[in-house]
Structure formats: C-alpha cells, structure tokens
Design goal:
With about 325 residues, the protein is an alpha/beta fold. The chain folds into three domains: about 140 residues, Alpha-Beta Complex (Conserved hypothetical protein from pyrococcus furiosus pfu- 392566-001, ParB domain); about 100 residues, no CATH class; about 30 residues. Helix content is about 55%, strand content about 10%. The chain contains 14 helices and five strands. The chain has a five-stranded mixed β-sheet with strand order 1-5-3-4-2. β3 and β4 form a beta hairpin. α5 crosses α6 and α11 packs across α13. The N and C termini lie far apart (about 70 Å).
Length: about 325
Amino acid sequence: MTDRRSPAPGTVGVKTIPTGELEPNPHNPRMLFDRVPLKTLQESIARVGILVPLTVYWSKADKSWVILDGQRRWMCAKEVGLKTVPVNEVAEPTPVENIVTMFQIHKLRQDWELMPTALKLQVLMDALKEKRDRQLAELTGLDQAVVVRCKKLLSFPKKYQDMMLDFEPENRVKADFFIELHAVLRDRTVKRMSWFNAEKVTSRMLTRYKEGGLKAVTDFRRIKQSINNAVKAGKTKVITDRLREFVDDQKLPVEHLILPDVTVNAQVRVMTTTIDKLQTLLRDLDTEAYYAEDDLWSRLETLLQLIKVKLAEVERRLQ
C-alpha cells in the first residue's frame, strides 16, 4: 500500500551562495517562464534584492547546488547581476520527494502552464504506481479537478504535448484546447463511427483553431452536446455524417452539427420533465396551508394565462 504521508526533505540551514553555482531543478513541474511576469520580478529584485531566500539542496551525484524553490528569483538575480543569493538549504530529496515538495510549495500557482505539471504528475504516477485521482490530489496538494485535467493532457501524443510546451507564449497551444477536445475524442458514439480517427480529428481541429475556424475552445462543448442530442433523438446516422463533413470541410461552421428537429426534441424533453415535476407539486399542494401566499397564486394565474395562449396558438383548447 502506498504511503500517503507527504515526503519532504529536512532543513539544514540558511546561507549565501554565489549565483553562478546554482542549477535549476530537473524535476521542477514548472518549465515555462514567460517574459512579462519575469520582467516585473526582475525590476523588483534590482531595487530591493531577494527578500525571500531560495530553497536549495546539494546534489551529491552532480556535485552542485540545485534549486528546490525560487528558480524565477534566481533567473532574475542573474539578469540583474547579483553575485550571491540567500538560500535555505535542505537535505537532498529523492525524486519523488523532490516533485511532491515542489507541488506542495507552489500549490499550482495561477500562472503555471498545465502541461509541464502533467508531465511531473506522470513521473509520480509511474514511481508510486498510483493513478487514482483523489490519492494523487492528496499527495500533491493539487485540486482533484486539476489532476483529472492533467491526465487528459497525458492521453495526447507527445507531438501535441510539445505544442503546449513552446517557450514562446504566442506560439503555445493552450491546454484548454486539448482538454475540451478530449470530451469529443472520447465520446463513445464518436469512437464507434467507422470513419473516426483520433489523430485525423485532432489535426483538423487544431488547424481550425489556429486559423480562427473555432470561436472558442468551448465550441467543443457545443459539438459534444449536438452529438448527445442527436443520439437521444435516434439520429446517430445523421450526426455521424454531419460530423465527418465538419471534420473534412474546414469552412463548415459548428452550426452544421445542430439538427433543428433534434434541438426541438431536446427542448421538449426538458419541458416535459419540468411540467411533470410541477404537476406533482401542484397535486400534492395543501391549498389551506398556502392560502395567504398571494405571490404564489398570482404566479399560477399568470402561468395559466400563458398556457391558454400557447394552446390557442396550436389550436388546442382546455378541456
């Protein structure tokens, strides 16, 4: 059984180390450091120096000081020419302790990109033979939803993962694109379509995304909803053909997948369920107990008038 205690290296002490003797952590879940946030930190360090010591350890194998926490501060210190940096030395961690400690320190800060985090989560899953979402969340301090999102990214081939790791923000494909697309690729109906090929769909959707053929990555939710509604309405064959056309023809809009009659059927199901619930509530209503609830009776009167209008529009009358 896997030990659920959060491994952490012990503290050795605080000291000052020459800036050039430090090395970045090979197990840092954060791999991407965008220029704009770094510029702000660099200006601050140039004015007042490093106020919070870096956390480092001595690597016996590499014979060097390795940064456990504070790589951005170290990078900025080099840029502004600081000869030394304050550090808090801890005992050398194992690879698992290293990754877990960094997760616990940072708790996935808002400006972290998700793909580098996913890669380090993969290292932990392999080392600990642990794939359960809740256990991984407890171990790393990540939210369980973040763990799920990371695992979705890990399901994509390396070439797509690399697109999320581009050091230039303007060239980087956001993780949200692949996370939203994942729901379509893993849809049971889609996977059974004879023409379906995950690589082909991913490639075509990526082209659409880069060329502006998708309004937003949330368009994939609309695609998934259209598929679900079509299947429930018994229109699997129609949506299968429509989706293939949408994938093959980059000019077709997402609206191509919306079947008017299917949309009506979906709305009918929602309304029918709502009406059934309302009927049950009204049937069981103790009128004497609610005798003085004028607002309730007023709303029911308004509802009755609206029902009469709608029935009249379809030439139906109250019996």
